[in-house]
Amino acid sequence: MIQAIGYATKSAHAALKPYEFTRPDPKANEVQIKITHCGICHSDVHQARNEWNNTLYPCMPGHEIIGRVEKTGSAVKKFKTGDIVGVGCMVDSCKECPSCKEGLEQYCESEKGFLATYNGNQRMPSPENHTYGGYSNLIVVREDFVLTIPQNLDPAAAGPILCAGVTTYSPLRHWGVKSGHKVGIIGLGGLGHMAVKLAKAMGAEVSVITTSKEKREDALALGAKEVILSDDNADMKKHKSSFDFILSTIPQPHDVNPYAELLKRDGVITIVGCIAPLTKPLDMSKLLMDRRSLGTSLIGGIKETQEVLDFCSKHNIQPNTRLVSVDKINEAFDEIDAGKIDFRYVIDMATLAEKHEDKSILGKIGITSH
Amino acid sequence: MIQAIGYATKSAHAALKPYEFTRPDPKANEVQIKITHCGICHSDVHQARNEWNNTLYPCMPGHEIIGRVEKTGSAVKKFKTGDIVGVGCMVDSCKECPSCKEGLEQYCESEKGFLATYNGNQRMPSPENHTYGGYSNLIVVREDFVLTIPQNLDPAAAGPILCAGVTTYSPLRHWGVKSGHKVGIIGLGGLGHMAVKLAKAMGAEVSVITTSKEKREDALALGAKEVILSDDNADMKKHKSSFDFILSTIPQPHDVNPYAELLKRDGVITIVGCIAPLTKPLDMSKLLMDRRSLGTSLIGGIKETQEVLDFCSKHNIQPNTRLVSVDKINEAFDEIDAGKIDFRYVIDMATLAEKHEDKSILGKIGITSH
After folding, report:
1. B312 or B367, higher pLDDT
2. Where are the beta strands (DSSP E) in chain B?
3. DSSP H helical segments within chain B, as ranges?
4. Is the pLDDT of residue B122 over 80?
5. Going by fewer Cβ within 10 Å, which terminus of chain A is more open, N or C?
6. Quick one: pLDDT at residue A365?
């Protein structure tokens, strides 16, 4: 067992605080990673605050993990000590079902499904029998779920590609977005800003659909051709029946009907940001008349995650990030929850060592109590 | 102008009664058809009773029309006097927009859209400036919207192919249903019973999903492999994640969530029967976890309508029908509305002449007053 430290919360209404725990020693097919950076995803906020009613406490979020390989199991082939690597939303799956075999581990058909990087249950040894994520100094992960970070990507900024990136890349690819398509991105947060960059790099003409007037300049700077204000009826009406594909990154239940009308015939609106019931029943009259569809998509598989990393490398796409020290996680959560930011906060994990290094049982990164 | 007679209603709560009106003489590109049979579609009930809040009165329904060509305009090429022909849900469209050019006139992108066979507005001369459907002795239709009825189809039974048939055929084809697929058909009425026959002929293994226990035997006789009772939780649970494609023919607002769970990964549930808002908000948790989609589809184009007629001819598929005389239309409406029947009523239009032929200004089929 390896002594580890991270930031975790013990209940839905408590702040995240330093928390000591253990990681298992790496098995033959596992890699031990010293975490250098971890993005803060909106899901982290939902999960820590038990907004999906399934949180296992203590909850240590983080699934946009970048780090350096410290140790490899005897059977590990793809990685060696010192490699810059990433870990996204999953750390294990059955690898035997049809979905896993197709590289779509996020839809693993085994009874337990995939093992989430945090809040995943029952398969990894931890005192509380659930997984702890990347808000920590180290992690031990099965080789098959570790990603190679291309050399030209900045390790301090690449983390969000592992969740926000692949979560938007996967549906853009699945629904065949390409040059000449008109694509609408609803919401300009962590996912939305990556979606704009990715869709643009795929050759699409991208519009951002948002309620936040103040995000207009940022949207255009990201590569959007225009910004549609979703609470402006005239603006919405002007864009009726004009999009081939719309991606909703809104992280809360919402009404999809007004957006559906923006689709052309055979257009698809795909929802990736919300896993709760939408706020209003679907209005068939807004869909049927143009054979519009509503799709859904859940994160992305490991193969696709490597693909989006390589795509970002090739197209020089980098998430817009700001580094934050561990003791500012709770403030960052509040800002994300308020929908104020159109970039990703990334925790600089070096600050975990700095803040908690004295009187430590863990050497440079430990603490004595919490 | 041609004197005509049909059955129409003057308000949402009135019964259908004999009604005299005029049809225009056929123009160069039009065909005058003596109607022999007309299917009674659930839409006819919705429309006559103003359940979609857009009915123009007097309302003369009927868009599953079979008849014989009586006269052709000078430019008509495809038809000659005596041909057995059909007219479905549409009698005109712009024929110039991208959708029309693709043979998808039901999604006509002109401002007015396609012209519906009845309750269509503003383009055909009629005293009240809207179209009258097939519950009548004759109709005059643009050649491009007239279908050829293959010789081996019974004219008394073929009518429902023109609406119930193409409305289910179109999505089954669009979503690529084929041999080896597991297909669920929700609802076993006019549309549902055709969907079972068509999907089975396409090679799929078909299940009927219904609340009506008493329809089990009929479903199996139509070719379904099994019947799932949608109000039996255990039965529904047993079939979780097992279908490639599900078609909902329920003609009323309903809750789609329980059915969505029956889909495999990447499965699609398509709604064709309801044009109002569904009863419950879509639950993303039931869709996202398997990248399930919700699709919609509206009737079918003219090219597809001919295709489904030819498909039925080739596969010896005939709608299950019962002939009804014109004076029983109102009773038939009540039965359809109650969801009791899993076949199509077809009006035997010869009975229109029989009932109303004496003291007539219209010769054999006229009446003097109404």
Report:
1. B312
2. 2-8, 17-23, 30-39, 65-72, 84-87, 90-92, 115-116, 138-142, 147-148, 182-186, 205-210, 226-229, 243-248, 263-271, 277-283, 293-296, 321-324, 344-348
3. 42-48, 98-101, 155-158, 164-174, 190-201, 216-222, 233-238, 257-260, 284-288, 302-314, 329-337, 350-355
4. no
5. N
6. 43
CB pairs under 8 A between A and B: 112
Are B288 and A296 an interchain contact pair (Cβ–Cβ within 8 Å)?
yes
DSSP string, B37-57: EEE--HHHHHHHTTTTS-PPS
CA distance B193 to B224: 10
- Residues of B within 8 A of A304 (CB-CB) are none
What is the domain class of B2-162+320-364 according to CATH? alpha beta
Residue spans of chain A under pLDDT 70 = 122-128, 357-370
- In angstroms, the separation between the Cα of residue B289 and the nearest Cα of chain A is 6
The partner residue sitting opposite B289, judged by closest CB among A268, A285, A298, is A298
The residue among B344, B346, B39 whose CA lies nearest residue B192 is B344
Residue type, B369: S
Nearest CA in chain A to B295: A293
CATH superfamily of A164-296: NAD(P)-binding Rossmann-like Domain (3.40.50.720)
Q: What pLDDT sits at residue B13?
A: 95
Q: Measured between CB atoms, which of A280, A285, A292 is closest to B276?
A: A285
Q: Which residue has the higher pLDDT, A251 or B296?
A: B296
Residues of A in contact with B285 (CB under 8 A): 275-277
Domain boundaries, chain A: 2-162+320-364, 164-296
Probe site for chain A from B257, B288, B290, B294 (most A CB atoms < 10 A): B288
Cβ pair B155, B346 in contact under 8 A: no
**B288: chain A residues, CB-CB within 8 Å:** 271-272, 275, 296-298
B271 three-class SS: strand
Per-residue exposure over A208-217, b if at least 16 CB sit within 10 Å of its own CB, e if not? bbbebeebbe
DSSP state of B59: B
This complex has an ipTM of 0.90
Q: Which residue of B has its CA nearest to A114?
A: B289
> Which residues of B are less than 8 Å from A113 in CB distance?
289
Measure in Å the smallest separation between the Cα of A154 and chain B Cα atoms: 31
Q: Which two tokens stand for residue A251?
A: 């992280």
**pLDDT tops 80 at residue B129:** no
In this model, does residue B367 exceed pLDDT 60? no
Chain A residues with beta carbon closer than 8 angstroms to that of B290? 107
With a pLDDT cut of 90, the percent of chain B lying above it is 88
Report pLDDT for A29: 97
Instruction: Characterise A358 by phi-psi region: left (phi > 0), alpha (psi -120 to 50), beta (else).
Output: beta
> Which residues in B lie closer than 8 A to residue A104 (C-beta atoms)?
265
In the predicted model, what is the mean pLDDT of residues B64-89? 98
pLDDT of B365 higher than 50: no
Q: What pLDDT is attached to residue A367?
A: 39
What distance in Å separates the CA atoms of residue B224 and residue B241, rounded to the nearest whole number?
A: 19
Instruction: Establish if A274 touches chain B: CB-CB under 8 angstroms.
Output: yes
Which chain A residue lies closest to B102 (C-alpha atoms)? Answer: A265
Burial of B106: CB neighbours in 10 Å, binned 0-12, 13-18, 19+: buried
DSSP classification of residue A106 = G
The residue type at B102: E
Whole-number pLDDT of residue B342: 82
